[in-house]
Design goal:
heterodimer; A: 185 residues; alpha/beta; GMP Synthetase, Chain A, domain 3; four-stranded mixed sheet; three-stranded mixed sheet; elongated; disordered N terminus; B: 233 residues; mainly alpha; Ferritin; 9 helices; globular; PaaA_PaaC (chain B); Aromatic_CoA_ox/epox (chain B); oxidoreductase (chain B)
């Protein structure tokens, strides 16, 4: 267990997040900056595209609180996400940045934006299929996962777990290439 | 907070046991799978232990008697089949428990709602292997049977009520038994017989009484932190 930076330690959810409509233009700009940070494991997508940014509040002059949600509870990238966000905001003149982890509502792969999905596929990672609002529990591995290299749907599961918690390993039977599949969650 | 310790210690201890497979798993895919499951459990443990106090102090500086995990999760890995048996028993229980906690309004609801999706995947992994080993060769069937039998007596403790968890434990038990029976039947195995309660050996983990291998596991898990307090990298 890595000793977490104080700002990245998982904390129980406290006060409910204020509605997004209450966000000021400055907060919006800072949220855009924080959200532009690339994911440490999947640097082709930003944190905003991954859908893990939950909010940002200006608490006072030079004091900002950012809310971040993990993809998986044990995602080890969470701490570097928090550090990267702090650095970007420091560089833009915010001296005091607190990054808070929120769990509720749980992140799902449906939070990944269309642009994020496109970038994943472009980098050879098959994006997750939409789960839909009615889905409950995990969706079995989708029957047809498209090969990000040749586009064939003739692909097979090699391993249910892969290089990170969020991916499974598949192989395309048409072109023979193995590829990662971002699992539906 | 007793319940946070009980659930957090379950996740932490099982995470460590699964981590022991690193470098030893029969195939690379399973090495990755067990490490991924361990990582999910570690994440859950961190959130739960943080509800009870300082996560690092709780994980690395408590003595054996202060741990509140069930004895099932501290049992040694055994062969791969025995690890799968432990996974089947525990992940089935954990998924049913988290489903119920997620529906509630207690302090564990946010974590349970998030983690239940991860645990469902762990349970599915254990079921697939139970089917493959049980309905595989004579050797794999026999080993799976032995693993299930060896751990059966530790399963009664899973359903001892934990103070602070608003859960109907007897219906949780019934749902667990139904699901386990169905998987074992499909795997051409039978539900083990024998006592699951009574006797000091099986079922006092929640009171801080642990089996002999747990002390050795803790020694390894805590050694680095105790030797180099405050170490970071």
């Amino acid at each position: 267990m890595v000793t977490p930076t104080p700002s990245a330690a998982p904390t129980p959810p406290a006060a409910p997040t204020p509605p997004a409509s209450g966000i000021t233009p400055v907060e919006e700009e800072l949220l855009r900056l924080a959200g532009s940070v690339p994911d440490p494991e999947l640097p082709m997508v930003s944190l905003a595209e991954l859908g893990v940014m939950r909010g940002l509040r200006l608490l006072g002059p030079g004091r900002v609180e950012v809310e971040l949600t993990p993809t998986y509870t044990g995602c080890p990238a969470l701490e570097s996400m928090a550090t990267d966000i702090e650095r970007v905001l420091h560089d833009h003149g915010v001296p005091e940045v607190a990054v808070r982890t929120v769990l509720s509502p749980p992140w799902t792969t449906d939070a990944i934006s269309a642009e994020g999905r496109r970038k994943l596929a472009e980098s050879g990672i098959a994006p997750p299929a939409p789960r839909g609002a009615a889905a409950g529990g995990p969706v079995p591995v989708a029957l047809a996962v498209r090969c990000p290299h040749c586009g064939s749907t003739e692909t097979e599961l090699l391993s249910r777990f892969s290089s990170t918690a969020c991916k499974a390993l598949r192989r395309c039977t048409a072109c023979g290439e193995p590829f990662d599949h971002f699992k539906e969650l | 907070m007793t319940a946070a310790l009980a659930l957090g210690d379950d996740a932490l201890v099982l995470s460590h046991r699964l981590g022991e497979w690193a470098g030893h798993a029969p195939v690379l895919e399973e090495e990755v799978a067990l490490a991924n499951i361990a990582l999910d459990l570690l994440g859950q443990a961190r959130v739960l232990l943080s509800l009870a106090g300082d996560e690092d102090e709780l994980a690395y500086l408590r003595e054996e008697r202060a741990f509140r995990n069930v004895q099932l999760v501290e049992q040694p890995n055994g062969d791969f089949a025995q690890t799968i048996a432990r996974q089947l028993y525990f992940s089935t229980y954990q998924e049913l428990l988290y489903e119920r906690l997620a529906r509630g309004t207690g302090p564990f609801a946010p974590l349970a709602a998030k983690a239940v999706k991860e645990v469902a995947y762990h349970r599915d992994h254990a079921e697939q292997w139970t089917l493959r080993l049980g309905d595989g060769t004579e050797e794999s069937h026999e080993r799976m049977r032995r693993g299930l039998d060896a751990l059966w007596r530790f399963t009664g403790e899973l359903f001892e009520p934990v103070e602070g968890c608003e859960v109907e434990w007897h219906t949780l038990h019934d749902a667990w038994l139904t699901r386990i029976s169905s998987v074992l039947e499909r795997a051409t195995l039978t539900v083990p017989e024998g006592p699951r309660r009574g006797g000091w050996a099986a079922g006092a983990g929640r009171q801080g009484l642990h089996t002999e291998p747990f002390g050795r596991m803790l020694a390894e898990m805590q050694h680095l932190h105790r030797s180099h307090p405050g170490a970071t990298w």
